[in-house]
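REQUEST FORM: STRUCTURE PREDICTION
Request ID: SP-0412
Submitted by: Lab K.M.
Chain count: 1
Length (residues): 333
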Amino acid sequence: MTLPHDRDDTSGQHLFLGFQGTVWTETLRDRLRALRPGGLVLFRRNIQEAEQLKELIREAGAWARTELGRGLLWAVDEEGGTVQRLSALLGPAPAALDLAEQGEEAVSRCVSETARGLRALGIHVNFAPVLDVVDDPQTHFLGSRSLGSNPDTAARLGAVWIGALQEHGVAATAKHFPGLGAARLDPHHRLPILDEDCVEKVRRDLLPFREAVRCGVQAVMTSHALYRFWDPDWPGTLSIKINRELLRNRWGFGGVLFSDDLDMKAVGGRYEPETIVRRSLLATVDGLLVCQDENSADIFARALYDGIRRHRDLEEAHRCSLDRLRALSASFF
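STATUS: Completed
RESULT:
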């Protein structure tokens, strides 16, 4: 793997990478040296038991402080229910929909327990809560991952969820902005297209995300759906109108904006890496998740390196984005 990076290069900090293996190895070290990412994303394939995971995080962190001059952010999807990477270590947690039925106290208690477990392991960011408003969990691809069909309830319980994580030192991530509740297709496989017949529901379903911003959520994750009534040309992850104009400028969100996984077919299968990098940075997306395909991570690293150096507008977007990423890192290092 030969990439054009040097020790002073900062373009790789936009990358949040999945990886193979459960221990700190020379192969992983060389990969991180080449890509110089901002963080790593954990999956079940990386987890055996608590001491193994803590040692991996400790060794990688020590290397990063010496080699990169900064810490690595560690992130995970620990929602409960069907999306739990750490259930073998932390024990099973209820799905969001089940917690919602039990009320605020149950949400606070369960999420606080999860947050304490994440913090003890050395994990900084949880890609939760899911704030998409799902009318029918039996037919929607998100199923029980949502807090339900009522935007007001999702907003109220989402704020409790965010508070429970962040009060225990774990950054919460409101996802998938601006909402997948009206989508019929799963962006893992195809591009969901939301037309005018969805506009009223999507506007109502903004409430949980607006409340998340109001209560100080540290991170937001984008949706890969195409919202034709807002931006007929670009899906949410790549949309300046949705991310920069609505989320940043109108709502005042100043935290870190993560893309959903760029290996998903809705975006990664449709656009060239150079286009994804350009549109993401201009839309104020800070962290680009590339979690499954090591080859695509190499390609995105090259696109970031080249694009930021060749285009003044990307250089400026990169500089502003680094400020947000560094502010999040400062919460932990």
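NOTES: The mean pLDDT is 96.
Reviewed by: T.R.
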